[in-house]
Amino acid sequence: MPYRHIVLFDVYKDVPEERLAHALHTLRGLAVLPGVSSWRIEMSLDERKGRVVVEDSTFVDQESFIAFRDCAEHRAAAEEMSHIADWRIGDYVIE
């Protein structure tokens, strides 16, 4: 069954726009990895509580997500994001 993975990155206030732009480019590059059936990276339109990056993705199944989560490209992107943001994750199976 399809596996949905949603992440909200709360970008630190002192992060320069060019560093955020690089991080967005890195995240968008993950769309081509195996098992990804839908991938979208956008800045939230609502900035009342700061800058928020929205990662809205769907994977073929949970096993595909686990393989993605553990791959080198994702680990590198997560490491990059850890320097500029905190985040919350929401995952669920689409039945």
Q: Mind telling me which CATH architecture this is?
A: 2-Layer Sandwich
SS elements, strand count = 4
Proportion of helical residues: 25-40%
- Give the averaged pLDDT, no decimals: 98
Q: How many separate domains?
A: 1
Organism: Microbacterium endophyticum
Pfam families: Dabb
Domain Stress-response A/B barrel: 3-92
Protein name: Stress-response A/B barrel domain-containing protein
Protein model, in words:
- This protein is of the alpha+beta class and 95 residues long.
- It has a single domain, classed as Alpha-Beta Plaits (2-Layer Sandwich).
- Helices cover 35% and strands 36% of the residues.
- It contains 3 helices and 4 strands, in the order βαββααβ.
- It has helices spanning 17-29, 62-70, 72-82, and strands at 3-11, 36-43, 52-59, 85-93.
- It has a 4-stranded antiparallel β-sheet with strand order 2-3-1-4.
Briefly summarize what is shown:
The protein is of the alpha+beta class and 95 residues long. It is built from 3 helices and 4 strands.
Annotation keywords:
about 100 residues; alpha+beta; 4 strands; four-stranded antiparallel β-sheet; Dimeric_a/b-barrel; Alpha-Beta Plaits
